[in-house]
Design a protein that fits this description.
The complex is a heterodimer of chains A (225) and B (204).
Chain A (H helix, E strand, L loop, with lengths): L28 H14 L6 H9 L3 H6 L2 H15 L5 H4 L20 H7 L18 E4 L23 E11 L2 H4 L8 E9 H4 L9 E7 L3 E3 L1
Antiparallel strand pairs in A: 1-2, 1-5, 2-3, 3-4
Chain B lengths: L16 H14 L5 H14 L2 H13 L1 H9 L1 H7 L9 E6 L4 E6 L8 H4 L4 H4 L1 H6 L4 H7 L9 E6 L4 E6 L11 H5 L4 H5 L9
Parallel strand pairs in B: 1-4, 2-3
Helix pairs in contact in B: 3-4, 4-5
Chain lengths: 225, 204
């Protein structure tokens, strides 16, 4: 079954509204604050990027749809902080204490920001899983496209590609598997491919027969044809 | 009651988003978990230091220097790292080149993945439901929303950034730009042209 964030191909959304050429990076101050608080909390080291994406995706469909972009971020962050034991519900109610926190020693300092952002968080890892597919090979995405590891869990196989046939375009190397990493089940690195799909394989009425969609897909999402 | 607070801790904070952020920031600051000066530093970085000017430099050099272009197409991560453009949300870069036969566009249908070190923080439209939902299915209709019309014989290739790979579109070099310097060329490279929803500007 699809989840609310997985909207590729959906009908009914209106036009895309381009921004003005001189539009500010952050439309309002609180957008900037929401991004900065999220990054600073990430530096406490209590979760990884897949856990944080999953936290946003499992907001209730009603909230995910009704919230603006940075409301999704800040609301998911609040949930994560409680879930990972960083804050308590009493803290959120304004009934917590202000004693020094065990994680305070990990607080990101202003003079460490540039280095932290420049370092990033590469997702490629050594893996014992050998590539099963090579460029040009025909493959099919698993169907149903749900997470194989956790019912209703995180996966990066978009629903619109479940069951679709395509061709391997390139091997990116071996990368952390989000389906596992988002649920504290380990990084489980495996081969990652760019796979090319004809628009006519994905959509009943493609705009043009020659159009294509390329999707980055892990080996365990794919089967040989 | 609309929310169970145990399932939705955010419902314990004020609903108005600016107040919600402020409330969380206050709690975290009091506990010594975040520092307002750190937040200012992060915001300053993405407001003033890291943005599409970085990507435009890469494109302009690819247009000007065939050796640079070949290296970029071979291993974009290493090439942009040499220019100091490695970092968060740009750890694994791939450059994709537009030609008369093929026009590339980039999206993240599942969230909002975007090459931060080269293009900065994504614009609101890139993160919008409409773009995420529509561009994989009807890229030409989305291009029309940006005032861009492609020849029918140009195929569209949409890259859905579902992993940690980040894509930079190298737009076609505009006619009449012969003899321009790298900096003059970079001024022709709009942010949208590096996402694929725009074309490079015409040289004056």
């Amino acid at each position: 079954m699809t989840r609310i964030h997985d909207m590729g191909g959906r009908f009914g959304d209106g036009p895309v509204v381009p921004d003005a050429p001189d539009a500010p990076v952050f439309a309002t101050d609180w957008h900037a604050q929401a991004l900065a608080v999220t990054l600073a909390c990430g530096a406490l080291g209590q979760w990884n990027i897949d856990i944080s994406r999953h936290a946003r995706e499992r907001l209730s469909p009603q909230d995910y749809t009704g919230f603006s972009y940075y409301e999704i971020w800040i609301s998911a962050l609040t949930g994560l902080l409680v879930e990972r034991g960083v804050l308590t519900l009493d803290d959120l109610r304004g009934q917590g204490d202000d004693r020094s926190h065990p994680l305070a020693s990990r607080m990101l300092k202003a003079d460490a920001v540039t280095a932290m952002l420049a370092k990033g968080g590469p997702a490629d890892r050594e893996s014992e899983i050998a590539p099963k597919f090579s460029p040009g090979q025909a493959v099919r995405c698993r169907h149903p496209g749900d997470s194989c590891l956790v019912d209703g869990g995180h996966t990066r196989l978009p629903a619109y590609a479940a069951g679709a046939c395509g061709y391997v375009l390139r091997l990116h190397g071996t990368h952390v598997l989000p389906d596992s990493n988002a649920h504290d089940l380990g990084e489980a690195p495996e081969p990652l491919y760019a796979v090319r799909f004809a628009a006519s394989e994905l959509w009943a009425n493609p705009e043009n027969a020659d159009d294509q969609v390329i999707i980055d897909l892990w080996q365990s999402y794919l089967e040989p044809l | 009651m609309p929310h169970d607070h145990h399932d939705h801790p955010h419902a314990l904070l004020p609903p108005e988003p600016a107040l919600r952020v402020k409330a969380l920031e206050t709690i975290l600051t009091r506990k010594g978990l975040i520092d307002p000066r750190t937040l200012d530093q992060i915001i300053d970085t993405y407001q003033n230091k890291i943005g599409p000017k970085n990507g435009a430099q890469v494109v302009a050099r690819a247009w000007s220097d065939p050796g640079f272009r070949d290296a970029l197409m071979q291993d974009a991560t290493a090439v942009v790292a040499d220019l100091g453009y490695f970092g968060r949300q740009g750890e694994h870069m791939v450059a994709v080149e537009n030609t008369p036969d093929l026009h590339n566009m980039v999206v993240c249908t599942l969230c909002s993945c975007y090459p931060w070190p080269l293009l900065g923080i994504p614009p609101a439209w890139y993160k919008s439901d409409a773009y995420r939902a529509r561009v994989v299915r009807e890229p030409r209709a989305v291009l029309a929303d940006f005032g861009v019309a492609l020849p029918k014989e140009t195929a569209v290739r949409v890259w859905d950034s579902t992993a940690e790979m980040r894509y930079l579109v190298i737009p076609m070099r505009p006619e009449g730009s012969e003899g321009l310097s790298v900096d003059e060329l970079a001024a022709l490279v709009s942010r949208d042209s590096m996402i694929g929803t725009g074309l490079a500007k015409v040289a004056k």
